[in-house]
Amino acid sequence: MKRKALDTKESPQAKRPKESTPDYCHTQPRKDDDGSILWPASREAIDRARDFIRECAISKEQILIVPDKDADGLDAGVIIHRTLTALGAEPSSINVHLVAKGRSIHDDEERKSMGDRNPKYVIVVDQGSRPAPPVVDSPDVKSLIIDHHLSDEFPKDALTLHPDIPTSCGYLCAMGTHGDLGNTLKWDPPFPDMKEVFKTHTKKAINDAVSLLNAPRRTAQFDVSTAWSALLTTTSPKTLLTNPRLLSARAEINAEVARHTHTPPKFTQDGKIAVLRIRSAAQVHPVIATRWAGHLKSAKLEIVLVANEGYLPGM
């Protein structure tokens, strides 16, 4: 059901008042039994993870990093990579596994693919968590899960933690955080003091780099490997701003958004839900939904959905 145009003779409906939400830094943190703030994780968990990473670095065994596809996951993965090499691991012993389009690390195909690389250690970054079998089907493989998504359930036999960020990777920390929490974030406690990072790297360069890093995963090719490779070799967010493949991926996504963004929405009879149907192999549906949510002003509207029938055909 298409939405009817407003009668210009009638007084327009009042806009829904904007809900006030506290800034991330001002939300109440979780605390330990003794009242200590559990951020980014308990001291015990951080110490266990440090021991795990040190063990990886000196083991001379194969290490597999499994980062999420977006900016914060890739940045965190590169931080882990650089930490391991700084502690003595050979770059040739560190591999990366990028999860296929539409899958999770818990899918049988992904678990087999990770196991086929014969790792001794697996470090999963920013993939979320849930009850599941071991990350890899081998009792000889040790796994560490590093994540910022709150969960009390984890894959079997996995060590878990939220990361402590090395100062030397400050711009990666800033890029990943802006990529996940937005670029208006106030860097107040409990976040680390990032003044020196933002003196060296402008927020504009960091935010522009985040935009470019997120573009390849949204393309029809789901080209996460390009973003990973570019980030792994960079020393500054500015070096990403001239990367030809990142720029072409963003141009491709912008063109695809423009092609579908004028698709007219249909509304439920009560006016609470707007649905737009598109067909694109690219991940443009979240962008289009966000744009329409800002454009539609009805006080009744609560949800904007974009159904993309071309992203994962058959699902």
Please state the CA-atom Rg, rounded to the nearest Å.
22 Å
Task: Catalogue the unreliable spans.
Answer: 1-11, 160-166
Number of strands: 8
Assign the structural class, choosing from mainly alpha, mainly beta, alpha/beta, alpha+beta, or little secondary structure: alpha/beta
The largest sheet, given as strand count, sense and whether it forms a barrel, is: 5 strands, parallel
Distance between the termini: 24 Å
Number of helices: 10
Features:
37% helix, five-stranded parallel β-sheet
Question: Which helices and strands, and how do they pair?
Answer:
Blueprint: H1 43-59, E1 63-67, H2 71-86, E2 94-96, H3 108-115, E3 121-125, E4 142-146, E5 158-161, H4 170-181, H5 195-200, H6 203-218, H7 224-233, H8 237-240, H9 244-260, E6 266-267, E7 273-278, H10 285-295, E8 303-308
Helix pairs in contact: 2-4, 2-7, 4-6, 6-7, 6-9
